[in-house]
Amino acid sequence: xxxxxxxxxxxxxxxxxxxxxxxxxxxxxxxxxxxxxxxxxxxxxxxxxxxxxxxxxxxxxxxxxxxxxxxxxxxxxxxxxxxxxxxxxxxxxxxxxxxxxxxxxxxxxxxxxxxxxxxxxxxxxxxxxxxxxxxxxxxxxxxxxxxxxxxxxxxxxxxxxxxxxxxxxxxxxxxxxxxxxxxxxxxxxxxxxxxxxxxxxxxxxxxxxxxxxxxxxxxxxxxxxxxxxxxxxxxxx
Amino acid sequence: xxxxxxxxxxxxxxxxxxxxxxxxxxxxxxxxxxxxxxxxxxxxxxxxxxxxxxxxxxxxxxxxxxxxxxxxxxxxxxxxxxxxxxxxxxxxxxxxxxxxxxxxxxxxxxxxxxxxxxxxxxxxxxxxxxxxxxxxxxxxxxxxxxxxxxxxxxxxxxxxxxxxxxxxxxxxxxxxxxxxxxxxxxxxxxxxxxxxxxxxxxxxxxxxxxxxxxxxxxxxxxxxxxxxxxxxxxxxx
DNA sequence: AAAAAGATTAATGAAAGGTTAATAGGTTAA
DNA sequence: TTAACCTATTAACCTTTCATTAATCTTTTT
Lengths: 237, 237
Fold this sequence. Notes:
The structure is a homodimer of 237-residue chains.
Chain A: E1 6-11, H1 15-27, E2 30-35, H2 41-47, E3 52-55, H3 64-74, E4 80-84, H4 89-97, E5 102-105, H5 110-123, E6 137-139, E7 142-145, E8 150-153, E9 156-159, H6 162-172, E10 178-180, H7 181-189, H8 194-211, E11 217-222, E12 226-231
Parallel strand pairs in A: 1-2, 1-3, 3-4, 4-5
Antiparallel strand pairs in A: 6-7, 7-8, 8-9, 10-12, 11-12
Helix pairs in contact in A: 6-8
The structure holds a DNA duplex (30 and 30 nucleotides).
């Protein structure tokens, strides 16, 4: 079904375990890059992007702990977990102290590993990936077609600009829920500063204008937090 | 100190383990509610707000798995983990399939438990205050949605300001318990002086006004100490 | 009854938000 | 190459919100 796959970097020096694991994870619909040498990790991370990093600790040319420290500095948003034979309590605690999202002890059951990875990735919903709009959306008495950037009501069409479109898409896919300044700005502008926030106000103002023919629709401000597109329940079922 | 703490509901029937765990977690700065009976879980979750739920599976009056299913439906945003003596693979997989964020086997090292909880909450709640894990709370006949800052009763919606919202969240998270001036002021205002205390009174007054339609709800003053949000038990069992 | 603490309502002012207009940067068309 | 056009950003200006402060009244304590 051509879903986007989650990308995982697996750092493991052991040939046979590395092979088994990467094959197993591939079968389970992950996109795996198997890194056999600790010294290659940073290079791989620089050239490709990943959703998760799985680290062995005992590597012939370096320590997984050291790698984790470097990763944390250069790629602070990349979640990583340890998968290792070192099971002493001190190591476990060190792993978590370094910021690991999990610490798994070998031998690990493959099915459990997959279950844990899913549990992890489910929590980290990458905002970039859920901004897809296939078909038209209903907003009160308006029809919103984000594909074509058109907002329509009783024959009146408004062509939206890119920003207006992105903002309305964001708000309408979180109908009646608070959308924080931060989420909107990071989601659409990619960063959050004073001027973007000013800009956001301008576009909210535009959308309010377009939407003001339906009394049941309001873009409400929640001071210091963000906006809510509130849509009254319409009487038809 | 006097930071706002993460709130955890611990569901554990074993007296001694429950005691040890809740004390240990309290020492580590978590705000723990220990639920001894599986049948009480949903009730507690409905009236108090939590950041995490820890579930035993083998309970005398119900199964942790069943509880998880109900929680998933009614409080889909609340992360939960299993902490159990059942270590069979089938149980582990079932736990994750139900949406658990972790599955821990007894006996668990307390330090590791704390490390894992921190790893989890750091992911769920990146930098600021956690409102993501919040769901709507029941306060008497009112519904309080701290996420969207609204208080509702029989169709009447009141949009709360930031301070009102923070205060009501604090009080309702410590229902029927004394909330000292000091804790509230340090928790919400970040400092405690004469003028903040005056301000606090103003907001208490606002909340009383909003809540005065339900006779069973009162914000009581305890002279020189603080306030209690007291909610009468409703007549149904 | 005096003093202290709390409750309530109202006044104030700074900051946040709203709106419209001007600017600048980029793209298209001629 | 230039002119026309579109759009995001910035600016300017106005309006609203809400935490604080103040003022006044009520309750509790001694």
